[in-house]
Amino acid sequence: MSGRLSITDIKLKIPPARNRNNSPKRSLKAMLVKVKFSPENIVVEAEAGEPLLNVAERAGVKIPTGCLSGSCFACEVEMANQPVRACITGVPSQAEVTIALYEDTLW
Ligand code: FES
User: pTM of the full predicted structure?
Assistant: First the structure.
């Protein structure tokens, strides 16, 4: 031994990742949500948190868009009876959700 440290002599102790409750983080399995688009009653599965516009596109549902940043309201739909802007909204973490499309003839 030469008295010099080499990289193999150093052992780092890295604590496990922690979640908000300071308990070790478990691997997350994506929650699947049944998303129903009305009035067409098209149903697709999506991951919780997945952008709503992506889910609509995958389902073949056309949601009008404009700014894609949440300021023009062109993409407004109704989710659980509340208006939301699809371009800045993700699929909620619940078993199923209904997205109602507005029929606005001006857009
Ligand atoms: S596209 Fe403008 S608010 Fe969504």
Answer: 0.70
pLDDT in tens, 35-66: 999 999 999 999 999 999 999 999 999 999 99
Residue ranges of the domains in the chain? 26-101
DSSP codes of every residue in the chain: --S---GGG----PPPPB-TTSSBPPPPPPPEEEEEEETTTEEEEEETT-BHHHHHHHHT-----SSSSSSS-TTEEEETTEEEEGGG-B--SSSEEEEEEP--TT-
Q: 54 C-alpha to center of ligand 1: Å?
A: 14
List ligand 1's pocket residues with C-beta within 6 A: 65-68, 70-75, 85, 87
* Pocket mutation for ligand 1, best pick of 57, 62, 68, 102 (most atoms within 8 Å of C-beta): 68
- CATH number belonging to the domain at 26-101, selected among 3.40.50.300, 3.40.50.2300, 3.10.20.30, 3.30.420.10: 3.10.20.30
